[in-house]
Design brief:
The structure holds 2 protein chains of 2 kinds. Chain A has one domain. Chain A is 70% helix and 3% strand. Chain A has 7 helices and 2 strands. Helix content of chain B is 75%, strand content 0%. By secondary structure, chain B is mainly α. Chain B starts with a helix and ends in a 5-residue tail after the last helix. Chain B has a domain at 3-17 and 45-102 and 118-371 and 391-415: Amino acid/polyamine transporter I (Up-down Bundle), CATH 1.20.1740. Chain B is globular. The chains are: A mainly alpha, B mainly alpha. Chains A and B meet through α1, α3, α4, α5 and β2 of A and α2, α5, α7, α9 and α10 of B.
């Protein structure tokens, strides 16, 4: 039995267990069904190569490219914006404390508002990301997941 | 402190220990001894449960005691910690959580090693994970020690030392007996207790000032003796450029470090899917954000009600500001209300320390057994169960953390956590981001990225004023500090990214197109995820 697949190599997969330690029925019940439907743990050299092809094929498919670009189109600008806003906050606090100390109303100054603003933007971005992922990505990603696993199982030659 | 405080606090704390030990035994009763069970708790926690557990893992004693203490002493500058600790979660949510859940099994090294030659990458990532965990553990141990010193009054060195030892012993029991399942439940219990305690104190502070946040700030500024300057940046990190750069360095480390913390990454494997991982992060951002907003109120509240001088008098680093605030809010020393509230806060802080310490120990024992031992053990040697190795590793890490915790007990805990974050951001984040997003990343790049961040970070800490050369440092007698900043992040984080890039462009290895395709498809769709 050879382990050519890096994802299921001997090092990573709980070596030395199951020797009379009761990894029997309860584990099987508890394991998510995904695993049973997934790529078989042990397969031959040709099987592994064929499965690698499956991933290349899926990666080039239009459906996957769509999921990936939806993810990137949201994440890249979002990361740039919040990093810039946070760095600007830290740099302003250190280099221009006078600006931060300028009073706005009562004891509340610019710095206090900027700090609380960081909290607010974090909450807003979290909400926006979760919503975007739920509405725009989850369904397509799930379909791709099943398709990929079906293909991989077919090529792997085992069930 | 009077005997009443001690008795009640010890009683409450014993109750927490009893409950958590009960959870541990109950969980280990049905233990199956598989790696899946031990590291990931069976992967069937719900997003809400995991969100609370993540929050429990993250809201450490450093936040509860350290940040409030820093705000009480330095005003606005302490707030940076609250902001940085929260904003960091955007990095986790957007770039790391889902992809890591889809690609890995138990540890950071799983994600990186999948595309690379396994052994060197696993050893590198395992080493850096263990280093970060031990640094973080020391911070928690120091927090436990200073809390006990306050509780028992005076500076009882022996009591402080025994607390550190006791906390270490308990954490080893939790982890080695109960694994991830017990640790997760302990985190959930602790998160609820900590949030409950913080809400009560915040409400009491706001009631004291009749809900007028403005007046709270004004009173704090007035009692601090700094006036308006207390509410603006510059008290702790103003003045010369060295301390300003220190502030930036800290800010960078805080925001980039969270995504490299091994005990946070390992939490994503306790839920069944990437979608559940995302939802648990959303839960935890809500909980953590609320918590840090309240620490701001508590910090300024401690400055306004207790006064920075009293805080400093009790613990020079400010770690005891919140317990003192609780004592005052309850009616002052000697009153029943004060005694009860003080005892509750002390017990909650203890519970916090225990739970966080257990989470980190579990993650680092996973790194030792799953990454280091698996890669370094002799071929053909007698195979031992991975979980058995992890249990022994938990013991070893416990002993190491106790020893270092005793050595470092006079440093501010929030500051120590800042160091751990800097090392995590330098050693773990570059390799993680490169392997998730860079098609051409190679084995050499991965190894260089880890060591290129880890070694500079550790060396700069050793050469910093934290270790030598100033009265507050670890070895005040000698002076070998060559690096001016206390936090190495500003230098070591870019070095980590640079080393990873350099290693990749100089290596002859041609990146495997198929493996990259597999990694990318898996990370975004969850195909084949365990």
């Amino acid at each position: 039995m050879s382990y050519d697949d890096p994802w299921y190599d001997a090092l990573a997969s709980g070596w030395g267990e199951g020797t009379g330690k009761g990894t029997g029925a309860p584990t099987a019940v508890r394991t998510p069904p995904v695993r049973a439907a997934g790529v078989p743990a042990a397969r031959g050299r040709e099987g592994a190569a064929a499965v690698a092809d499956v991933y290349l094929q899926v990666q080039r498919s239009a459906a996957f490219q769509e999921v990936r670009s939806r993810y990137r189109r949201f994440v890249v600008p979002a990361v740039v914006v919040f990093c810039a806003w946070y760095v600007a906050y830290v740099v302003t606090a250190t280099t221009a404390p006078d600006l931060m100390a300028r009073p706005v109303s009562g004891a509340v100054n610019v710095g206090m508002l900027a700090g609380l603003g960081q909290f607010l933007t974090t909450f807003l971005l979290t909400w926006a990301y979760a919503r975007h992922a739920r509405l725009r990505r989850d369904r397509a990603a799930l379909e791709l997941r099943w398709d990929t696993q079906e293909l991989a199982r077919g090529r792997g030659g085992e069930s | 402190m009077t005997g009443n405080h001690q008795a009640l606090a010890l009683l409450l704390f014993s109750a927490f220990v009893a409950v958590t030990l009960g959870i541990t035994t109950w969980v280990s009763r049905r233990r199956q001894g598989s790696a899946e069970e031990f590291y990931a708790g069976g992967r069937l926690f719900s997003p809400m449960e995991n969100g609370f557990a993540i929050a429990g893992d993250y809201m450490s004693a450093a936040s509860f005691l350290g940040i409030s203490g820093l705000i009480a002493l330095f005003g606005y500058d302490g707030m940076l910690y609250s902001v940085g600790f929260l904003v960091a979660w955007l990095v986790v949510l957007l770039l790391v959580a889902e992809l890591v859940r889809n690609c890995g099994r138990f540890t950071l090294a799983d994600v990186v090693a999948a595309r690379m030659r396994e052994r060197p990458v696993r050893i590198a990532a395992g080493t850096s994970s263990v280093t970060v965990s031990v640094l973080y553990l020391v911070a928690q141990m120091v927090g436990a020690g200073s809390l006990v010193a306050l509780l028992l009054g005076g500076r009882s060195e022996a009591a402080q030392a025994w607390t550190v030892v006791g906390v270490g012993a308990l954490m080893v029991i939790y982890v080695s007996m109960g694994g991830m399942r017990a640790t997760t439940w302990i985190q959930i219990v602790k998160a609820v207790l900590l949030l409950g305690g913080t809400v009560v104190l915040t409400v009491l502070v706001l009631l004291r000032f009749h809900g007028d946040f403005n007046r709270l700030l004004l009173t704090a500024a007035e009692r601090s003796g700094h006036g308006e300057a207390f509410l603006a940046p510059g008290l702790a990190y103003g003045g010369d450029w060295t301390s300003r750069f220190d502030f930036m360095s800290l800010g960078l480390a805080l925001v980039l470090g969270t995504a490299g913390l091994p005990h946070i990454l390992s939490r994503f494997y306790t839920v069944p899917t990437a979608r559940a991982a995302r939802r648990s992060v959303v839960w935890s951002i809500g909980l953590i954000g609320g918590f840090y907003l309240m620490t701001i109120v508590l910090g300024f509240g401690a400055a306004a009600v207790v006064g920075p001088d009293a805080v400093r008098g009790s613990n020079a680093a400010g770690n005891t500001a919140v317990p003192l605030l609780a004592l005052d809010l309850g009616g002052g020393a000697g009153s029943t209300g004060g005694t009860v509230l003080f005892a509750i806060v002390a017990a909650v802080a203890f519970a916090t320390i225990l739970a966080v310490v257990a989470g980190i120990t579990l993650a680092s024992s996973a790194s030792v057994a799953h990454d280091l031992y698996a890669s370094l053990r002799r071929r053909g040697g007698k195979p031992r169960s991975e979980v058995a190795v992890a249990r022994v590793a938990a013991l070893g890490i416990g002993v190491l953390a106790i020893a270092l915790g005793l050595l470092a007990r006079d440093l501010n805990v929030a500051f120590l956590v800042g160091l751990a974050f800097a090392v995590a951001a330098s050693a773990n984040l570059p390799v993680l981001l490169y392997s998730l997003f860079w098609r051409g990343f190679t084995t050499r790049g991965a190894v260089w990225a880890v060591y290129g961040g880890l070694i500079p970070a550790m060396v700069l800490v050793l050469l910093s004023p934290v270790v030598s050369g100033s009265p507050e440092s670890l070895f005040p007698g000698v002076d070998f500090h060559l690096f001016p900043l206390q936090n190495p992040g500003l230098v070591s984080i870019p070095l980590g990214f640079l080393a990873g890039w350099l290693g990749t462009v100089t290596s002859a290895e041609i990146p495997d197109e198929a493996k990259h395709a597999e990694a990318e498809v898996r990370s975004l769709t969850g195909a084949g995820a365990v």
